[in-house]
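Pilot study result, target chain (122 residues):
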Amino acid sequence: MTSEPLGSIVITREQRTGLSRDSLRSYVVFVDEVASGKIARGETLKIDVCPGEHVVRLKIDWTGSRPVHVKLPPGGQVFLVAGPTGTPLQGIRDLLPGREWCYLRVVSSGSGSAGHQDDEQA
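Predicted structure:
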């Protein structure tokens, strides 16, 4: 019996210069509503997952990013980029309904399908 090779979700968090919002804090990465790791500023996190469709989301405290749907074939990879949506002074604005505190975007996929974001509130 042969098992299919795992796929990978690879997330890179931008490293902005200076002290920006969340620069000293990590985002928790959820894959299919399961906490799968943490990512700090300037880090890259690789999460091995079974082939198929997955929902990826970042959380920090009670807020986070919108969910991103990705589809991975056996052995495929999807690359995402993450970061804060604004400056420390824009934090109050980003707590309003319908706003993202941080973003998560698909930048490319290797043998996988690019994802899409839900329009639901973060």
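One observation from the pilot: DSSP finds no helices and ten strands in the chain. A full batch analysis is planned for the follow-on phase.
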